[in-house]
Every structure is written in C-alpha cells, then in structure tokens.
Specification:
This protein is of the alpha/beta class. The chain has a single domain (about 5-240), classed as 3-Layer(aba) Sandwich (Rossmann fold). It has seven helices and eight strands. It has helices at about 5-20, 40-45, 60-75, 90-105, 165-170, 195-200, 235-240; strands at about 50-55, 80-85, 115-120, 125, 135-140, 150-155, 185-190, 205-210. It has an eight-stranded mixed sheet with strand order 3-4-5-2-6-7-1-8. The protein starts with a helix and ends with a helix.
Amino acid sequence: MSLQMSTARTIARRVAANVATNGDSPAAPFAHDFDFFGGAEQLIDYPGTEVIIAGPYETGKTIAALHKLHTLLWTTKNARGLMVRKTYKSLLPSAVVTYEHKVLPIPPGHPDCPVMVFGGSRPDWYDYPNGARLVLGGMDNADKFLSAEFDFIYVNQAEEIDVDDWEKLTGRATGRAGNTEHPQIIGDCNPSHPYHWILEREPPFQQFCRSGGTSWPFRVPLPPSGTGHPRPRKTRRARRCCA
C-alpha cells in the first residue's frame, strides 16, 4: 500500500467515523502524503458543526482544510460542498490552485482524474464519482449560491469576511441538504489584529485550532510521474513551517 493511500485511509477513517455517511466508500485519493499534527490534526479530527484554524502564512492551514473537505466529499454520497472566499477572483489563484495541484490525485481535466471540473480555467464546480459536488463562490456574489443548502462548507481566509457573512454561511450548512447527519463549516484564517471578530466572537467557535511553530508538519513524497503534478522542492521556508 502506498504512503499516499495509507494516510488517505487514516484521514478517511477519522472523518468517516464521525461525519461522513457513505458506508464502505473507498479512501479518498490524494496528490501527496501528508502527516498532520497539532492544530491541523485537531481540524481533521473534529466532528462538530463548526471548526476554524488560525495561524501565520504557510503553516498548513489550507492544506489541512482542503484535505478534510476532499475526504468528506469523497466519502459522502451526493454531498454538496462549497469552497468560498471573500471574492471569487481571489479564490482562484489561492485555494483552488492548492486543491487542484496538491490535494486532487491528478489535476482536473486529465482523463485519469476521478474528479471532473466544469467551467475550465474559471471553474464553477467539481463533480465526484459518487455524485458529490463542490461549488466555488465568492461573497462578492453570494446570491449565486446562498439560496442553496450544503453539507460541507470551506471558507478560505475567513478573516477577510465579516461575522454576518460567516453567520450566513453557517445557515446554509444546517443539515437540510440531507446527505449527512453531521454537516460542517470549516474555516482557515490569519486574523490581522487581536480584536478581530474571529478572536472575539460570542459565542466562540465550537472548535478553534491554532497552527504555528518551527517544524514542518507533514512529509511530501515525490508524486507519481506522468500525473501532471510538479515535483516538490525542499526549501528553508518549508522546513520552518508547521501546522
């Protein structure tokens, strides 16, 4: 068994035991093998309806959140997911690139990729082989998706939105989508000041995780040749990062 599938199954087993509802679904395939710990591991393990992870740039927040989102969609039949940021334009070069090239086993558009993309270079959604769908959006055009119900929502750079936006999104993941008994909204953030609403929210978040430190949080083996993924390089920045 590859390291990739070993860790994928570990994450899928953790999440599926608490959240996913698709029975004996195969483990979600990933581009790389990641060993999460610290705040990222807490994010992966948390089964409740609301979880957010905070930390500096390049501490593994987005990778952890997207891995969890991908696993939930892969293991929950007909699930409806949403990936959202303050603006759709800012989502494309950030979380979407990470999702397509560091989370999916093969970049979408490749004939061997199990996840199909719709919308080309400006994707509208991704379809999973089990009927699940991941919709993309920006809060600058929220009317496009806020009339829908979702099982899982991921908010990238949640510090950019305000508390009203967050509450609107939580209202779209209440279980009414009907594909899981355990809907969840996931956020990653880097609050810019100690009085940011994320840090002072009342009531506080159900689960607030922190990433940071001095150790690289996960190993990244070379991806299989021919998949279209770049071969990662070890850098001093990478060695300093952690989750």
